[in-house]
Amino acid sequence: MSTNKQAFDFETLAVHAGVEPDPLTGAVMTPIYQTSTFAQSDVGVHKGYDYARSGNPTRTALQNALATLEGGRYGLSFSSGMAAIDTLLRLVQPGEHVLVGNDVYGGTYRLFTKVLAGYGIDFDFIEMSDLAVVENAFRPKTRLVWLETPTNPLLKLFDIAAIADMAHANGAQFAVDNTFASPALQQPLQLGADFVVHSTTKYIGGHSDVVGGALITNDETAHDRLKFLQNAIGAVPGPQDCFLTLRGIKTLALRMAQHCRNGLQVAQFLADHPAVERVIYPGLESHPQFDLARRQMAGPGGMVSFTVHGGETQARIIANKTELFTLAESLGGVESLIELPAPMTHASVADSPLAVPGNLIRISCGIESGDDLVKDLAHALSAAG
Fold first, then answer.
1. Does the global pTM surpass 0.90?
2. Given Cys at both, which of 81, 242, 277, 289 links 213, Cβ 3.0 to 4.6 Å?
3. Residues 84 and 47 in one domain
4. Full domain range(s) for residue 48
5. From the CB of residue 241, how many other CB atoms can be counted at a distance below 10 Å?
6. What is the pLDDT of residues 125-169, one digit of tens each?
7. Quick one: 172 and 296 in the same domain?
8. 244 and 190 share a domain?
C-alpha cells in the first residue's frame, strides 16, 4: 500500500501496517527469513542485513507494524517484555532516579529492585493517581517516570497526559507499559509519553503461542541508542516469533472488541454476586478512575480483578473450580485465564509495599461466548460454597 497508512483507521492498520508484498516473490504475507547470516557482495556491502542479531526482514516488518499501531516513528522488538524493559532502563545511569507507579507486574518489580537497584539506580514506588504526590516525588536526578496503565493486577489508571507534562517539566522522560490496553485501546505517545513498552506475548500476539516484547518511540536519538543496545545485548526475537506476532496483530482490533465485551459482561456479573467482595474493572462506574478510562481509553479491556469473601483459601478453591477459565499465568490470549496474583505472577512483591491481597483473583477474559464465561464463573463460585 503506497498511501499514508497513518491516515487509516486502526482496524485497517492492524491488517496492513508494516507489511508489503515480498519484493522477490510477491508473497502477501511476510516471509519467515529463517537465516542467521546474509551474503555480502563485497566486504561490508550488503542489502541492509548482515547478521540476524543485528537485523532480519521479518523482524523489520514487525517493528514497523508496532510503530505504526502506536502512532510512533520507531519500533524495536525483543525476545520478551522483560528484555524490552531492561533495555529501556539502560538509558538510566547509576546514581539517577526513577519514579514508578505503586502497582506493577511482579517481574518488573523484581528487575527494578533485585537487579537494577544493585547497579546504583534509585527507584521510588508512588501512588500516581494522586498528581500532587507525583509532583512532589521528583528529584534533581529523576531521569525516568515509569508506569503501567491499567496496572497489573489492581487495574489502576493513571493520567498519561498530566504525568507526561510533569515529567517533561522536571527534565525526565516518561515510559508507559501499554500491555493491558494494547494500541487498540490506548496510544500513550499521542498523550505525551516518550516510550511505549509492550509484552507482545499478551494481546498483541494474542494466541498464547509466542513470547516477545517491544519498545516504540518518536525520539530519534533515544531510538538510535536503544537500537545499539538491542544489537549489543542481543535479546532479540527469532523470525518465527516475529511472524507469529505479525499474524496475531492482524486480528487485534477484532479480538480487543470481544475482550472488552466479555470483560464488561463478566464484571457486571461478579459485581452482583454475594461471594464477591469487590470488583475492579475500568468499565464499571464503581472504578475510581472510571471517568479517566472513558477519556483516555477506547474501551475498558478484557482484564477483571476481584476479591472474594473467605480469604486466600476461598480464592484458591474458586480458581481451581473453573473449567473454561484455565488456571495459568499470562493474559491477553484468545482463551480465558484465571490466576491468584499473590502466589503466582506477583510472588515477587510479597512482603513489600506493593504486596497484593491473597484473596485477589485476576481473570483474563478471552474471546469465547460471554454467556459461557459467566456460567463457568457462576459454577465455580457456587461449587466453592
1. yes
2. 81
3. yes
4. 5-249
5. 25
6. 999 999 999 999 999 999 999 999 999 999 999 999 999 999 999
7. no
8. yes
